[in-house]
Design brief:
Layout lengths: L13 E7 L6 H9 L7 E7 L6 H11 L3 E5 L5 H11 L4 E4 L4 E3 L3 H12 L3 E8 L4 H10 L2 H4 L3 H4 L4 E2 L4 E6 H7 L10 H11 L4 E11 L5 H21 L6 H19 L8 H17 L5 H24 L4
Helix pairs in contact: 5-13, 10-13, 11-12, 11-13, 12-13
């Protein structure tokens, strides 16, 4: 029986860190999902707020005024890794829970994550990014993100058995491991979680996935927003591979290969028509596959699914081929 499960034994204190930028709409709900956790140990929430164009800072300050467990710190750059490191520096406790400003923790998330940390001795414990949307576009993106056809076989997207993993969504860390690897690499505008988990594993730490832990994620609500998100994610995954060549996986190459073949087929088909089979075959695949994974959903979701899948694959692949600007 772990310490946090023994009757009468107080649970260890935890610090929840949240990098916040333009989250006026979702921030109160996200903080509420943290503070309403059934956790009997001390808890603090550190919000690292970047310069936003909406009322995010006012909302954060109001939340801190209402609850002494909430602390607000500045993140002048507004960049996620800077905010995470600033929040970590302001925390006091030895267990650090990573959270976002537009997510919701599942019931019992913190309690169970601390138990799993103690049971496994892991450096970081996390679970599933549970994409959920409202409206046809968001719902279509959510369905795609929870399917291997959309995001590949990473367990934090599609679920799976508990055990060691390359990475997890967000995560609950032992502070000693954050110190040991030097925190988040501020060079990474995206993929900073994956990159730090790679360094943790390289230093001998275990990153542990458990499907019991879920965090609700709200996907992009437009094709333009989805394309920007996936293009940037592809760029920074390329940078991870550049910096850590041993991290490359076959599934990372599927999207850039698809972009290359579709492009070659579309252009080459002008000179030799049989090459048009490449883009046409891809279009047929995402259409049939999209309709299949969206079966039983409202018509608006089904109709958008092929375009959602193509946007995710092709923009991520193009970003990976291009890499980030230096």
């Amino acid at each position: 029986m772990s310490t946090s499960e023994r009757p009468g034994t107080p649970s260890p204190p935890v610090s929840v860190i949240m990098p916040i930028l333009e989250e006026e709409q979702h921030l109160p709900e996200a903080v509420r999902s943290v503070l309403s956790q059934d956790y009997d140990g001390p808890m603090e929430v550190v919000l690292a707020v970047g310069p936003s164009r909406d009322r995010t800072r006012e909302v954060a300050d109001a939340l801190a005024l209402d609850d002494p467990r909430i602390v607000v710190v500045d993140n002048p750059s507004g960049r996620t890794p800077d905010g995470l490191n600033a929040a970590i520096a302001a925390t006091r406790h030895e267990i650090v829970v990573r959270m976002d400003g537009h997510g919701e923790l599942s019931e019992g998330y913190v309690r169970r994550a601390v138990q799993v940390l103690e049971e496994t001795g892991a450096a970081n414990v996390g679970g599933v990014m549970l994409a959920e949307g409202s409206g046809p576009m968001q719902e279509a993106v959510a369905v795609a993100m929870r399917s291997p056809l959309g995001m590949g076989s990473e367990r934090f997207h599609v679920g799976g058995e508990a055990g060691p993993a390359d990475t997890v969504f967000l995560g609950v860390f032992r502070r000693e491991w954050l110190r040991r690897v030097g925190g988040y690499d501020t060079a990474y505008a995206r993929a900073q979680d994956w990159e730090m988990n790679h360094r943790i594993r390289g230093a001998g730490g275990v990153v542990w996935f458990t499907p019991e832990l879920t965090v609700t994620y709200r996907p992009r609500a437009s094709f333009a927003g989805l394309a920007r998100q996936f293009h940037t994610s592809g760029q920074w995954r390329r940078q991870v591979v550049r910096q850590h060549p041993d991290s490359v996986r076959a599934r990372y190459l599927a999207a850039p290969v698809a972009v290359t073949l579709v492009g070659l087929g579309a252009v080459g088909g002008l000179a030799w028509r049989p090459l048009w089979a490449l883009p046409l075959g891809y279009a047929a695949s995402v259409t049939v596959g999209g309709f299949w994974i969206a079966r039983g959903r409202p018509a608006g979701v089904v109709a958008r699914m092929p375009a959602v899948l193509a946007t995710m694959h092709l923009t991520w692949g193009a970003g990976f081929l291009r890499g980030p600007r230096r």
